[in-house]
Design brief:
The complex is a heterodimer of chains A (347) and B (499). Chain A is α+β, with helices and mostly antiparallel strands. Chain A has two domains: 6-170 and 326-332, Uridine Diphospho-n-acetylenolpyruvylglucosamine Reductase, domain 3; 174-307, no CATH class. Chain A has ten helices and 17 strands. In chain A, the strands form four sheets. In chain A, strands 13-10-12-11-15-16-14-17 form an eight-stranded antiparallel β-sheet. A five-stranded antiparallel β-sheet of chain A has the order 3-4-8-6-7. Chain A has a two-stranded parallel sheet with strand order 1-2. The relative contact order of chain A is 0.14. Chain B has four domains: 2-105, 2-Layer Sandwich (Uridine Diphospho-n-acetylenolpyruvylglucosamine Reductase, domain 2); 112-229, Uridine Diphospho-n-acetylenolpyruvylglucosamine Reductase, domain 3; 233-341, Alpha-Beta Plaits (2-Layer Sandwich); 345-461 and 469-487, Alpha-Beta Plaits (2-Layer Sandwich). Helix content of chain B is 35%, strand content 19%. Chain B has 17 helices and 19 strands. In chain B, the strands form four sheets. In chain B, strands 15-12-14-13-17-18-16-19 form an eight-stranded antiparallel β-sheet, sandwiched between helices. Classes of the chains: A alpha+beta (347), B alpha+beta (499). At the A-B interface, strand 7, helix 5, strand 9, helix 6 and helix 7 of A face helix 8, helix 9, helix 11 and helix 17 of B.
């Protein structure tokens, strides 16, 4: 099943290393907007496909990075399992490698965990063309630094991810969505109050005057919690539209900022869509970039540009972190081949 | 263990370093925060892995961040190594002192700085004990999930260094899943804030690099931890099997049924009998294996899962399945499991404790291999483990006064770890590499990964002064293996429960 082109990729990267030639990592191209323009010769991961190992009983799948996310999810669904971090795809061409390289997580993030939380192992080709393997397929592993999780959401800046091992989970037996009328602030307060109680909450969101709460788990637990929390039953499909940013509240907006802030943060910005118990807010207004970033930073958060124009896509790093990032980049990719400037301009 | 004594610095070099660093430290710390006499240094010569011991050159006990920064700057400028130590309960010698270095003991920095029950976040200094965190937030109906067996003594800083787990990590994750933010001082005295109160932070996920880095990258001076609501109900099922392989397969059957237990632990016949002998938990001593499966959640959820688990275990071939009647019986079930190490220590003069992890599906085969090795080496081996995580703790029993047995125990342990790696596993699931498993890292990483690890470390610590010689072997250091050695049941911190 699939095809292993590791050797071809190693040769291409080793050659580029020799000639100090920049490389641009390409997957399915569905997240091209998420970062500055790629420069250099294309390294195409999409030819490196296939599920290498999937034993449902192990709760682990090992898969080559070019495998379509849809194929991974279909294989899991067939066995009643899922990627519990619910990654957005932003298009059918999305690969699992791109999913991990961008490290995006969906509605379940605050309750079930993020992409990096489910990373167990990785194969990566570094900037010297060395094919390396870190972590593995086991749940607990403290041998060496946790490079698997470091590679997650590194946007290709440290190396080419060629294979990932992910922890997977069973699909919840019962899922129900509740909706209730609330202001944004009321919703955030409600989400956080409920999160402090032992309830099977798996997602929360607020949009268009409605607070949505998703419950997942054993049927009896979901039903009991639904009764306790109250509200109207709503269609579970709302979560897919939120995840893919096709929900009415943000679908057509030409400017879209993702604000990642502490869940209970009080933020003086009008956000039409709030997720993650208040931890992920989407801003579609026209506040100038610097002002927006300053406001978000003041509450301990950061801002990422999804749609529209700005000087930078990702939030700038402070000088100490910036210098450290450059040194880490150098340790993996000494000749600065991979995705230079895509994530942060300094590396 | 003799290897530790070789390659030590000359006394003249140590004396010179001490003469250079002590005046600088005296300018930073009060006299009770600086230990220099042999008598004062002695309590720090080992962590929880007692056979590995070295006298530190000096011990510094900072009380705040500014002191840590000043100490680090002083050490960097004098090229003096720094070994950070938490509560000293580690089982791999990660905090074994450097004979020519400063041992930085974080125990005086143990304050709770803030509790935010609405955001479910606690801010602590690194020296706070793990159990003290959960105690402090219990009034809010919250707790801190990682619960390593040494939790009454071990510190949060040490947990971060080792990526500590516990019985509940299958469902609630390891330390890496439960720390939101860490303030770290690097060897140049620089201050970094990794992570944040938001659910992700700008830049690379350096929190991932920090957690489990065994004090090789920096010193944590403050951490923000994620708190969870205490589950409404917790119940435990005990299942006895007349065959070890059948029990191993039952572990997979529970997972396959779509249930993620809060804890899933297993004991083999030897450890079962030793534990029963030790404290009468009411275990079926005829059984070849015992599984303990804990389920938590809402009352309805637990009821549903307990019924499912009971059915799965019976179908999987369990001979006897018991649900603990109440919390008292539940605690008794667990107590036997938690006492397995001292219980084995009672029936054997010495034992080696291994910490390999394998994919769950490999359990029956690996358990059989470990069992078969008993005849090969002429030694008994008890098995207690976190079955849900595939994390094995084989206890090889031997008599250390018999050099032949001691040698065979070493070889037995090596073969177990090699077997773990061969079956797609790892040499350490939760105890860390430290100084103990530094050589086995070469089995785990035969390629260029070690070079990459060293390069990553130098990005944080260019002079390689932080905890030198630990965690990641140099390429020319791939030699013989060493294991945790317990003599006459004399565990460091014998009062602690051991997993």
């Amino acid at each position: 099943m699939g095809q292993d082109i590791t050797q071809t990729l190693v040769e291409q990267i080793a050659q580029a290393h020799q000639e100090a030639r920049p490389l641009a990592i390409h997957g399915g191209g569905t997240k091209g907007f998420l970062g500055h323009d790629l420069v250099g010769e294309v390294v195409d991961i999409t030819g490196h496909q296939g599920i290498v190992n999937y034993q449902p009983v192990e709760l682990v799948m090992t898969v080559r990075a070019g495998t379509p996310l849809a194929e991974v999810e279909a294989a899991l669904a067939e066995k009643g399992q899922c990627l519990a971090f619910e990654p957005p795809s932003f298009g059918s061409a999305a690969t699992i490698g791109g999913t991990i390289a961008t490290g995006l997580s969906g509605p379940a993030r605050p309750y079930t965990g993020s992409a990096r939380d489910f990373m167990l192992g990785v194969r990566v080709i570094n900037g010297q063309g060395q094919a390396l393997r870190f972590g593995g397929e086991v749940m607990k592993n403290v041998a060496g630094y946790d490079v698997s999780r470091l590679m997650t959401a590194s946007h290709g800046s440290l190396g080419l991810i060629t294979e990932v091992s992910l922890k997977v989970l069973p699909v919840a037996k019962s899922v129900k969505t509740l909706a209730t009328s609330a202001s944004a602030n009321e919703a955030i307060a409600l989400f956080n109050r409920l999160a402090g109680q032992p309830l099977p909450i798996s997602a929360t969101a607020w949009a268009e005057g409605q607070a949505y709460i998703r419950l997942s788990g054993a049927a009896s637990a979901v039903d009991a919690a639904a009764k306790q929390i109250g509200g109207e039953l709503a269609d579970n499909s709302v979560w897919a539209s939120l995840k893919e940013l096709t929900h009415n509240s943000v679908a057509e907006q030409s400017t879209l900022w993702r604000l990642s802030v502490p869940q209970t943060a009080s933020l003086d910005l009008d956000c039409p869509l709030i997720e993650w118990g208040g931890g992920q807010r989407w801003y579609t207004g026209d506040a100038p970039e610097q002002e927006l970033r300053a406001k978000v930073e003041a509450v301990g958060g950061h801002a990422t540009l999804y749609r529209g124009q700005a000087e930078r896509v990702f939030h700038p790093l402070n000088p100490a972190m910036s210098a450290l990032h450059s040194r880490i980049k150098h340790s993996f990719d000494p000749k600065a081949l991979f995705n230079v400037g895509r994530f942060h301009p300094e590396f | 263990m003799t290897a530790i004594q070789s390659g030590l610095l000359d006394q003249a070099i140590i004396d010179d370093r001490r003469a250079r660093i002590v005046p600088k430290l005296q300018a930073i710390l009060s006299s009770d925060q600086l230990k220099v006499t042999q008598e004062d240094l002695a309590p720090f010569e080992t962590d929880g892995l007692a056979p590995y011991r070295r006298m530190p050159m000096v011990v510094a006990l900072p009380t705040d961040k500014a002191q840590v920064i000043a100490i680090m700057k002083a050490c960097q400028s004098e090229d003096i190594p720094v070994v950070t130590r938490g509560a000293g309960t580690g089982l791999s010698g990660g905090a074994m002192p450097h004979e020519g270095g400063v041992l930085l003991s974080m125990t005086k920095m143990n304050a709770i700085q803030n509790i935010d029950p609405d955001a479910r976040i606690i801010t602590v200094q690194p020296g706070i004990r793990n159990a003290a965190v959960t105690q402090a937030v219990a009034p809010y109906g919250l707790y801190y999930a990682p619960d390593p067996s040494s939790q009454i003594a071990c510190s949060i800083g040490g947990n971060i260094a080792e990526n500590s787990g516990g019985v509940h990590c299958l469902k609630y994750g390891l330390t890496v899943h439960n720390v939101l933010q860490a303030t770290v001082i690097t060897i140049d005295g620089g201050e970094l804030t990794l992570g944040g109160e938001s659910l992700d932070a700008p830049g690379l996920d350096l929190m991932a690099a920090l957690i489990g880095s065994e004090g090789m990258l920096g010193v944590v001076v403050e951490a923000k931890l994620k708190l969870l609501p205490i589950p409404q109900v917790t119940k435990v099922v005990s299942a006895a099997f007349d065959d070890l392989g059948t029990a191993g397969r039952a572990v997979g059957d529970i997972i396959a049924a779509g249930i993620i237990p809060a804890g899933l632990e297993m004991m083999d016949k030897l450890s079962l009998q030793a534990a029963e002998n030790f404290l009468n938990a009411g275990y079926p001593t005829w059984a070849e294996a015992l599984l303990l499966c804990e389920v938590d959640g809402t009352a309805e959820e637990v009821q549903e899962h307990i019924e499912d688990v009971t059915q799965v275990l019976k179908t999987a071939g369990a001979v006897e399945v018991k649900v603990a009647r109440d919390d008292a019986e539940r605690e008794l079930f667990w107590k036997g499991r938690k006492s397995a190490f001292p219980a084995v220590g009672q029936i054997s003069p010495d034992y080696y404790c291994m910490d390999g992890t394998i994919p769950r599906g490999e359990l029956p085969e690996v358990l059989q291999k470990i069992s078969d090795m008993q005849d090969k080496y002429g030694l008994q081996c008890a098995n207690v483990f976190h079955a849900g995580d595939g994390n094995l703790h084989p206890l090889i029993m031997f008599d250390g006064n018999d050099p032949v047995q001691a040698e065979k125990a070493q070889q037995y342990g090596s073969e177990i770890l090699t077997t773990c790696v061969e079956h797609g596993g790892t040499i350490t699931g939760e105890h860390g590499v430290g100084v103990e498993k530094i050589n086995e890292m070469c089995v785990q990483f035969p390629g260029e990964e070690l070079t990459q690890f060293h390069a990553l470390k130098r990005a944080f610590d260019a002079k390689e002064l932080m905890n030198p010689g630990k965690a990641i072997p140099t390429l020319n250091r791939c030699a013989e293996f060493g294991h945790m050695h317990v003599h006459h049941g004399e565990m460091p911190h014998p009062e602690l429960e051991r997993f």
